[in-house]
Amino acid sequence: MPEERFEPERNRPPDPPRISDEPAGRKPLKLPNTPINGFGAPPGTGEESDDAGDTPQSGGTVAGTPLGGGSSGFDLLALEQREQQTLTRLRDLMRVLVRALKAKRMYPANNPLLQRILAEASIAMNETLEQLGDVRLTVSQFDFLFLGQSVYSNPNRKESIAFRFAKDGITELVFQDGLPSEQLEEFLTVLGAALESSALEDDLVTLLWEQEFSHISYAYLAIDDMQENGSSALSVDESSDMTWPATGDTDEAESRDEVTGVPWTEHQGWIDGDGGSGHRADDWNELVPVVRVEDRCSNDFLHLTSQEIETLAEEIHLEHSRSLHDVVLEILTEVAEDETTPEAFADLARAFADLLIVVVQEADLQHAVEIAATLKTLSASRGHDPMGFLPDPRDLTAQAISGLGRHPEADASLLPEFLVHLGPRAIDPVCDLLVDVDLHALHGALQLALVELAKQDPRALLARVHSAPPHAARALVQVLAQVGGSEAEQGLAAATSHPEARVRKEAIAALAQVSSGTTRPYLLRALDDEEPQVRAAALFAMRDSFGHSEENQALAERLLAVLGGPRFGDQSAVERNAFFDALVTLGGPTVIATLEAWIGAWRLGGGSDVKARRELAAGALARISDPRAQAALRKYANSLIPAVRGASRRALSGMNHPSEEQAA
Amino acid sequence: MSHGYEGNTARDLSRDMDDEAHSSRVTVAGRALAANLSVFWKTARLYDSRNVAYGQSLQNLLDSLIALHSLGSDFTLQVVGDCLYINDQRLRVDVVGYASHQFIVDELARRKVGGLRFIGGVERSELTAFTRIFLGESAQHPPDFEQMVAQCEAQGLTRIQPVRELMLPPQDPHESETSGRRMVAKKTFFRAIQSTKNVMLSARRGKAVDLRQAKRAVQSIVDLILSQELSLMGMTTLKDYDEYTYQHCVNVAILSIAVGHRLGLTKQQLSQLGVSGLFHDIGKVVIPNEILAKPGRLSPEEWTKMQSHPIEGVKIITRLHGLSPLAMRAIAVAYEHHMNIDLSGYPQVKRPRGQNLMSRIVAICDCFDAMTAHRSYQKHPFTPYEALHYMTTKIPERFDSTLLKVFIQTVGIYPPGTLVRLSGGELALSVYPNAEDVTAPVVKVLREASGMPSLDGRRIDLANQGLSRGQMGFVTITEAVHPENVDIRPEELVE
Hints:
The complex is a heterodimer.
Chain A: E1 3-5, E2 31-32, H1 73-106, H2 112-132, E3 135-139, E4 143-146, E5 149-153, H3 161-167, E6 170-175, H4 181-196, H5 204-211, E7 216-221, H6 223-226, H7 228-238, H8 306-321, H9 325-338, H10 342-361, H11 365-381, H12 393-406, H13 415-421, H14 427-435, H15 440-456, H16 458-467, H17 470-483, H18 486-495, H19 501-514, H20 520-526, H21 532-543, H22 549-564, H23 573-586, H24 589-600, H25 608-623, H26 627-637, H27 642-656, H28 660-663
Antiparallel strand pairs in A: 1-2, 1-7, 3-4, 3-6, 4-5, 6-7
Helix pairs in contact in A: 1-2, 1-4, 4-5, 9-10, 9-11, 10-11, 11-13, 12-14, 13-15, 14-15, 15-16, 15-17, 16-17, 16-18, 17-18, 17-19, 18-19, 19-20, 19-21, 20-21, 21-23, 22-23, 22-24, 23-25, 24-25, 24-26, 25-26, 25-27, 26-27
Chain B: H1 10-13, H2 17-46, H3 52-69, E1 75-80, E2 83-86, E3 89-91, H4 98-110, E4 113-118, H5 124-135, H6 145-154, E5 160-164, H7 173-204, H8 212-226, H9 231-235, H10 244-263, H11 267-278, H12 289-292, H13 300-307, H14 309-318, H15 325-336, H16 357-371, H17 384-393, H18 401-411, E6 419-422, E7 427-432, E8 442-447, E9 459-461, E10 477-481, H19 483-486
Antiparallel strand pairs in B: 1-2, 1-4, 2-3, 4-5, 6-7, 6-10, 7-8, 8-9
């Protein structure tokens, strides 16, 4: 069975002049190769010599090293030992390579451990090649063979490197002395990609061919040789299955146009725009035969002007760098717009979806937005669910993020817009991403997307607030605050009961912005929260939203309840001051009465809380600009209880001569 | 232009109708024999003689032997070079039979056997026994001629005999290398056609398309073009009626890759360009044959249908596995290759935009190859020289003028397949172009100045004659010759 082989090119004639300076592909001619497990070899390769049978089995050889004959009995032992050493060395090398391959598949490119493993693999490879020369391995189903002996074996079809080679018909692999480390790394990359993909298109031969390795060559079977029996028989039968245009035995009369009667070779000219004009050159219909060309082509015509060369070079350069996303999008759109059959439209819609996946993987979010929008519009215009043909939003979201990770140069500003196109079903995956602290840089964009998505379906977001970890829950609360509306407010209200204080605090702050009557009870309740930061936030929110007297009354009562309750003991001085400050601002009979009561409250051996409350109440009363408050203070200034009297007098005195501290 | 002798050639004289009919029947039966023999050998290697597949392939072989015997008495299937002969009649290789043809040539050569002689009345048991001897015990070590003869004698096989290998005069090493490269080119060409056919048949049946084969075929083409193996371009002259669509696709791929190489595209880009060229017309699998093959004028409805093939092509390619960069490129080319640079073609785009570079390349190659192909509606196609002339003078507005120049620089002013008159009066065939001089291809002399057929069929590299221009003996082309004037079909001369 004929094989093909890539070998470094020799005696290559010079290239013709080329327009572009981009590196041209330089790859050798494929030549027939030694049969290894085939049926026959082409003649003239010179490798079917009579002494071929002396070479050990069909295993690999070390180039230039006569491993076979040439040694006498005396040397046999030494030779055998040397062979064993060689095999051991190669087995070790294969182990190192396998380890490097695993690491390559596991770690990102900049991982130090990976770098170290790759360096070790390169060193091991080069040491082996230096010692043995080129290493030629024969590929069998699950093994790499050298001298007919296995130096690598793995019967697991998914993981076996040998199997992956054998599957695509590669029969031999040669590492050549001087293999650069970059090439070895590229080789491992290709191999890793091939192991991860089972798609028909990802032929390992093609992947290797594209890399143009100078120091790694391989021999392989043609695909039709791999399936030869079936396909050979098939090719005979199948040729009759599809009848392509044949000439038929037409007589000379058919050489004349049935309409004009003009002989075809004599027929000249064509009718512009007349698609059915008769004579044609296949699908280039207007191209009718002309009278024979007697005049010579002018060589002048062939001369490329410098401007033409420049333009062409620019286009070629562009061809190197551009993607075809926009072109394919336009083509698919044009085809889909005119498509009338539902089945064909569905196929095209799937192509849109495929394209969407491609652009998302490449972090081309601008086209991703365009594709999603176009697909939705086209689907809707045909009465389909606009989201029906979009791929799973969870996958798309994940791919968009990983695409941005792979392409740090990409513009992430369009991420929110893209995610919004995916609809409310994207809420869950986006929420999941908010959990990932490694994506902190993208959290802003994700939150922006969630704001718009949650406007479409707030409930999907509400469900996530309580289950999310604190930092994500806070972000979700911020999103809800921007979403607005009654459902969002309910969500925020619910968040005031979140187990995590920082979330409750965020919810309080958000509710303050909403400033709705229905949310006020939650703020009031938060004044009694166990966490000072939450209570402070609630107070801050309340202070900024004082309103009607009824509301003030309720707030005052709540403040007094907190200050008069056990929570007072937990409060810091700052918080207590803040609470009392609020009471001063609110004022009113209830406040004055309660404060007055706190000043007068006394019991033997009273605790520090009573004392502190008295002092603060006195200070607050002194600042309330109500005669009743001052009257109360003056009353207690003459109290028989020294502590009460002292507190009142100090308050009165501060009122007349405010200290620096009070002023502050 | 003198047509004196050409109208009355030896070929004309020998054109006896009976002989021609007989010769044609031998060719058909010979090709069937080659196909059945190769299938049988492959089957015999895999299956026991009691297997149904074995029995069926053996019967097919027997039938084709009987058919050949009915055309004469005994005959020999002979290998000369890389050609197969039935007695002294060459079995011209065609697209369908190429694989089996080459297989037999290879297998016989491996065993140093020049051919097989079949005596009338051969039986199944003899075929089975001989095949066992021929295949030998191991694929790696098949028996050679002497061993085979000895074993045949031992088993009393008389009606099938191996024939000794012909001892040809030693070849000039350079010629040997050249012919080896030509053989690789030929193999690549036919393999590409087979791959295209497989893909198109799968596409037509709505089956999953395996692109690996096509991609590998294109890679081989790219490798050959990169190594300056321009004889591959000569293969594009071969025009097979029955396999037109597939062959046209391969021709377009080859020409496109050659142009792309001249432009300096990278290897990967050349590969994409080649695959795109291969499938630029894949949409035609849904166009009814009655339209594709209709002789003469198409009705407006038929023309509309024909114009849908770029769109159908897009639909087919999108049904492949995902949208790889390759598939995207193929979509663009399939859709745009008839748009024309001035957007006057089809399909009419709603949002005007230019053709992509690769689409423009493929458009030129497509047009050129279509114009030069024999079709039911184009019995007298343009010669390559005329096609170039037409494209550059009559319809230049359709193509990118710069790329058209590059195309001509690539295929030469006298592209492969063009008949030319040399300055010495000889009639020659342009075989492949010279990269360094578009006016001086490599030519093969067909007739001497006297009008007599050339006996040596020598090749002349007009760009590398070892003489300076104007020096005595320096050969140039004086004119392009129309095949009809000399009664020659260049496509039949491809080696």
